[in-house]
Specification:
Rossmann fold; Alpha-Beta Plaits; alpha+beta; disordered N terminus; seven-stranded parallel beta sheet; Jelly Rolls
């Protein structure tokens, strides 16, 4: 009889994006078969389902269902997006049009169009097609009528006092549709749209369109009534969106604004839409592009990928999902969806998109699966290695009940190398409660492009113009935060350092009136338009007023700089204190139209530049001017150049007799000068350089109700000027305090949860740097994850005792090659004489409640002169527990005094002073080829004199430990059909009748893939054993307490 443990590659339980009428993957289906079929068809699983279901006769989505995945189907054709394998989009478009693709558009290597459903099965024969997926409709970052935003932004004052109305500019609007509902003519007649009408380059006249683009056009006309307006839909895939941007620029639009995000746009690199934005603003420096920052606040989880074990579907141990991400002692993440709330997740990881940059693209296949109890309700299980794109998009789950529902999210690696970073963004309810929440920035995609001006939102009624009690506006609670790092360039090359762009740049207003879109918030008879979708066109219209004042010669950088310099500084309420200057929620603050335009009217002047006293880098600074291009010049710096960023020549900087340089700037023939005394600058406070983050802080774990202490390492920050730094901390959980003098966080936490902590180091010149880490507080009575620590070993007799810490209290089974034991649950055994004579690392595995952990015991080092455990009652460090496979490291001490709390330290590589003994060893240090000693330190909290140390030599990087020779015994294992092309093999077992046999499958590196206990009742027994899903070499180990066999298996 087979007793399956957690790890077994049986028929796995997967469910992906589901059509409400016909789920394309059921609980019984094998994900390997699905992924193989999807790859062969060159269709993502959801599109494959459409192709296979009832010859394409799929019912429209049922909005009363819990799970929705809305396709766009017109006259038997489904809207798709496709990627060209050679990035030649035009060639692929021609091939797809030959199959019947309608309304097709290509941009770079991406295609959009309507493909007849009965032709989907022919896409596998298109040689230049990488894959196709359904058109995932983009998210809208949702006169006799005048928007209240006009007053809030002081645009009404600008028009009245400065004589501007936006004449000379043409504003291009991009959204879902313009006139699907009708009403455009009425808008023109009522004066809410330009009398000349709106130039519509391409509209989206499809059921479900909202005409949000017309509502945006009304806002533009309210603020800049003299500006011309054009429209182009974004709803033709990313390719159509990108081409629409180019078309609007070609139609003469010097200002373009959108309110769109495509869910599958890249998080960590510029996609094709972002590249189109950069191209239009680069081709003409007077073109400005505005985009809504998004309405997802900080509804994002972002973390380094922490590899966990193979995990199974809840309630079905034979249905293996993959290698789970470890969220922090737990392999799933609870999200509580409120009554009538929704959940839709987009998952990405740090690999480039093949559809964007060509090449290999994604090398890892990740899946995301969402369970309600034991029922799979959402998932994304595309074959990412086949598509080359590191993205999974789930359907939408709706909690149709009247109470909150708990869902569990699993992020698993199905195939390929471990990613470095994972991130999901929730497009469902913002009020969902998220376990292990990182509150990361949720703004991404083209609004993160360098050439785009990203716009946050503040409601009109929370601005000083409408609330006299406010001195600065308050940001909308839903307005998305930035901060997502750019990790790759457009060509897919990993950047040497992550690039954190300052997004959003500005905040504008939302919630104003229009003639038809939204609901009547304040009951004045007109609907209100909320969201960053409304804020972005307000900002674009202010840019039109500014352009008119500057003779329509303002370059994009001047538009942005003037808006930022004259903005009302705002605060991100989710961070401690007031965020002076830029923050990732509100940018540089709330724009003021009149102030920005007045700044243009001032004469050009040079002011004190920004200067780096160490490097000589200098940035020319000007005020005023007419907005046209400026050139800069300075002897010893540069001849006339449009680039304000230059360097003072090194000989001038080194010559102590040189003190001043004359800077010049010219605009339209006007030349202004400024004499800069860089010696005085560098002697005064202006020469101060800000501190910098030198060593990132690692997350810390604490237990509720238990004393905790952590010392911020002195090496965390460095100061270029050598100044003493002062420290402050924000975000601590309740019960913890920070001592700025000692840099120590201490106390007894009273709340459970994940708390992002910000440490700020400030120099005497009030310049600062910050470091962030999480303090994760768990319940006192919560079962901590099972962990193996160093075993007890007798070098003379070979006796060994396995040791574990934590766990849930249920029985533990052990497995180790070359150790004789009388039962799988017995932790005591003897190392076999042959292994003792030729010592090799021993991989010990412990399994409890289906979760397996391992520890590599360096047998050769155990008796080779390492520091012995202390004798007597002295407080001392002893050999730590270390798992070289996962990097989990646990300090261990002997004879600790009762009632005292111990704190631990080892920098670099492990941790600064912390009461938590368990940490993850720095990956680079634990895998380095050269083995160097590490100094481990421990002491009682508050007693520096009690410190003890231990020199610990890290073991060599993991060996497989899986191929030790064993003596011939009566046990015989025969693999039938080896090599094999299947995901399983049949095995005949003989010579062990009446015994319990342990079967274990390992990959070529010795990593355990599955374990099973088999009761052998006859003289011979046949058993099916599951392998991994990738071709290569595997090892099958079979043994009991006295003997072990290892057989090599080749999967072709």
């Amino acid at each position: 009889m087979l007793k399956p443990l957690l790890r077994g590659w049986g028929s796995a339980a997967f469910l992906a994006l589901a059509l409400t009428a016909s789920p394309f993957l059921t609980q019984a289906q094998n994900p390997n078969a699905l992924k193989s079929a999807s790859r062969a068809a060159k269709l993502t699983p959801d599109l494959l389902n459409l192709q296979q279901s009832a010859n394409g006769a799929v019912l429209p989505p049922d909005r009363n269902s819990e799970v929705q995945n809305e396709y766009v189907i017109i006259d038997g054709a489904v809207a798709i997006e496709a990627a060209a394998s050679d990035r030649n989009g035009q060639a692929l478009l021609a091939q797809l049009q030959a199959l019947g693709l309608r309304q097709g558009v290509a941009f770079k290597g991406m295609i959009f169009g309507y493909m007849p459903i009965d032709k989907l099965d022919q896409l596998k024969n298109v040689s230049t097609l990488t894959y196709a997926h359904p058109f995932y409709k983009p998210d809208l970052n949702v006169g006799k009528v005048t928007s209240q935003g006009d007053k809030a932004l002081r645009a009404d004052i600008a028009r009245q006092t400065l004589g501007v109305d936006g004449s000379g500019s043409k504003v291009g609007v991009i959204s879902d549709s313009y006139n699907y509902l009708g009403g455009a003519a009425a808008g023109v007649a009522s004066g809410d749209l330009p009398a000349a009408g709106v130039q519509v380059l391409d509209d989206y006249l499809v059921a479900g369109a909202s005409d949000e683009g017309r509502a945006m056009a009304e806002i533009v006309h309210d603020v800049a009534p003299g500006a011309a307006i054009a429209f182009n839909t974004a709803n033709r895939g990313q390719a159509g969106f990108a081409q629409g941007i180019k078309n609007l620029a070609a139609a003469g639009c010097n200002i373009i604004v959108d309110d769109i995000i495509y869910l599958a746009e890249p998080f960590f690199q510029d996609g094709i839409v972002g590249q189109a934005v950069n191209e239009v603003v680069t081709n003409d420096s007077r073109v400005s592009y505005f985009s809504s920052a998004g309405n997802r606040a900080r509804a994002s989880y972002e973390k380094e990928y922490m590899p966990g074990p193979l995990v199974s579907a809840p309630g079905n141990a034979t249905n293996v999902l993959g290698y789970a991400h470890n969220f922090g002692g737990k392999y799933s993440q609870r999200i509580t969806v409120p009554a009538r709330g929704t959940l839709r997740l987009v998952l990405q990881w740090d690999q480039p998109f093949r559809s964007v940059s060509g090449g290999t693209g994604a090398t890892t296949d990740m899946d995301i699966l969402v369970y309600r109890g034991n029922t799979l309700v959402l998932s994304g299980v595309a074959n990412n290695i086949a598509s080359g794109d590191p993205v999974e998009v789930t359907g939408t789950y709706t909690n149709s009940t009247t109470s909150a529902v708990d869902l569990e999210v699993y992020i698993v690696k199905y195939d390929g190398p471990d990613p470095g970073r994972i991130k999901w963004v929730n497009f469902g309810s913002s009020t969902s409660v998220v376990e292990f929440n990182t509150n990361s920035g949720a703004s991404y995609g083209h609004n993160m492009a360098a050439g785009c001006i990203s716009v946050a939102a503040a409601p009109y009624y929370n601005t000083p113009a409408f609330n006299v009690n406010l001195t600065t506006p308050r940001v909308e609670s839903f307005s998305s935060a930035g901060g997502t790092p750019m990790l790759f360039d457009a060509a897919g090359n990993r950047l040497a350092q992550p690039e954190y762009r300052q997004k959003p740049e500005i905040t504008s207003v939302d919630g104003g009136n229009n003639t038809f879109f939204g609901s009547d918030y304040e009951g004045d008879g007109f609907p209100n338009f909320f969201g960053t979708s409304a804020a972005a066109p307000h900002a674009a219209a202010v840019a039109a007023l500014m352009q008119q004042k500057a003779g329509n010669n303002l370059i994009r950088s001047s538009v942005l700089t003037l808006m930022q310099q004259t903005a009302l500084d705002m605060d991100d309420p989710l961070t401690a204190g007031f965020d002076a200057g830029f923050d990732y929620r509100t940018g540089y603050g709330f724009i003021q139209a009149d102030k920005a335009i007045q700044a243009i009217a001032q004469p050009l002047a040079l002011v004190e530049p920004k200067f780096n006293c160490q490097t000589g880098a200098i940035m020319f600074q000007t005020t005023g001017g007419d907005g046209s291009p400026i050139e800069y010049q300075g002897i010893g710096i540069t001849d006339w150049s449009p680039n304000p960023n230059q360097f003072l020549d090194a000989p001038v900087l080194a010559d102590q007799n040189s003190k001043t340089v004359e800077l010049k700037a010219r605009q339209n023939g006007q030349v202004v000068t400024y004499v800069f005394n860089f010696r005085v600058y560098c002697q005064g406070s202006n020469g101060n350089q800000p501190p910098v983050l030198a060593t990132p802080l690692e997350n810390q774990f604490a237990r509720r109700g238990v004393a905790f202490a952590y010392l911020i390492p002195a090496t965390t920050f460095s100061d270029p000027n050598g100044d003493a730094l002062t420290y402050s901390v924000s975000g601590l959980p309740e019960g913890l305090t920070f001592n700025a003098t000692t840099r120590r966080i201490s106390g007894t936490p009273t709340q459970v949860g994940t708390f992002p902590v910000i440490v700020t180091a400030t120099d005497p010149g009030n310049l600062s740097a910050q470091a962030m880490f999480d303090i994760i507080v768990v319940t006192t009575d919560a079962a901590q994850p099972l962990a193996l620590i160093a075993p007890l070993y007798n070098c003379s007799t070979g006796a060994i005792s396995f040791r574990t810490i934590n766990g849930d209290g249920t029985p533990i089974t052990y497995f180790a090659i070359g150790i004789s034991r009388d039962a799988p649950t017995n932790p005591n055994g003897v190392v076999e004489p042959g292994l003792r004579g030729d010592p090799k690392p021993i991989v010990i595995t412990a399994t409890q409640s289906g979760i397996s952990v391992s520890y590599t015991f360096d047998l050769a080092a155990a008796c080779g002169g390492t520091t012995p455990p202390p004798t007597g009652g002295a407080f001392a460090l002893i050999a730590p527990a270390y798992d070289c496979a996962t990097g989990v490291f646990t300090f261990q001490v002997a004879n600790a005094a009762a009632g005292k709390t111990v704190e631990y330290y080892s920098v670099p590589g492990i941790t600064g002073w912390s009461t938590n003994p368990t940490h993850v060893f720095n990956y680079d240090l634990r895998t380095a080829g050269d083995v160097k000693p590490f100094t481990l330190r421990a002491r009682y909290v508050g007693e520096p004199a009690s410190e003890v140390t231990l020199e610990w030599v890290r073991p060599a990087p993991c060996s497989s430990g899986a191929r030790l020779a064993v003596s011939e015994q009566s046990l015989q294992i025969q693999v039938l059909g080896n090599p094999t092309s299947n995901d399983h093999v049949d095995v005949d077992v003989t010579g062990i009748q009446g015994q319990t046999l342990q079967l274990r499958v390992l990959d070529a590196l010795g990593k355990s893939l599955s374990e099973e206990l088999l009761d052998v009742n006859g003289t011979s027994q046949r058993q099916r054993v599951n392998l991994g899903h990738s071709p290569g070499m595997y090892f099958l180990q079979a043994g009991d307490a006295t003997q072990l066999k290892t057989v090599k298996i080749i999967k072709q």
